[in-house]
Design goal:
Elements (H helix, E strand, L loop, with lengths): L5 E7 L4 H11 L5 E8 L5 H8 L4 E3 L7 H14 L4 E4 L8 H7 L3 E5 L11 H8 L3 E8 L9 E8 L6 H25 L2 E4 L2 E4 L15
Parallel strand pairs: 1-2, 1-4, 2-3, 4-5
Antiparallel strand pairs: 5-6, 6-7, 8-9
Helix pairs in contact: 1-6, 5-6
The protein binds glycinamide ribonucleotide (GAR).
Amino acid sequence: MSDDLARVAVLLSGRGSNFVALADACARGEVPAEIVLVLSNKADAGGLDRARERGIPTVAIPSKGMPREEHESRLVAALDEVEAHWVCLAGYMRLLTPVFIDRYAPRIVNIHPALLPSFPGVDAQAQAWEYGVRVSGCTVHLVDTGCDTGPIVLQRTVPVLDDDTSDTLAHRILEQEHVAYPTALRMLLTRRWRVHGRRVVFDPLIDVDRPWPASAN
Ligand code: GAR
């Protein structure tokens, strides 16, 4: 266990490409974090395989048929056991209740494949394409109990091209997600910040050589 690295748990429900982007950025030393656990509500999530390939511990706690609060209590217990300090949702397709949020906020982060507050919820890329917007993108935000409503940390834009389909748009947004998520996590872990109203406010980069210790956030 390194004291210099933030202990991050990743929650996912699917293939886990954002988890891979985070894990690779950590391995390259670009994000001062260690992914200590990958947790899924789906036992067959591809992201769990990606984690095992990297030697990162995994836990599946299936949510199906389990009361929501009991499920979240079990998530919290699993994260407490590995002493996770930060939680990154990476395609975790369930809303979280105060059972979970109150334990980890404000250190819960999510990535969403649209420019919030437009197109929250599922199939955001298809929602944006069907609406006919000319620009979409992705949003990294802190998590509250709403559906993709927490304060925004970072957004990256993606133009919608005339010959795009919902799938080609989703593909280009995903490429930007893989840049946005590690960048946002690095900012949160290395800079002083606070939540002011709906804003995540970062202090100016006065002292870049002396990053804010992850343990103090
Ligand atoms: C990503 O596009 C992520 O933004 C989205 O699920 C996908 C997961 O892909 N999340 C949401 O829609 C949350 N509202 P991944 O498993 O390859 O990271």
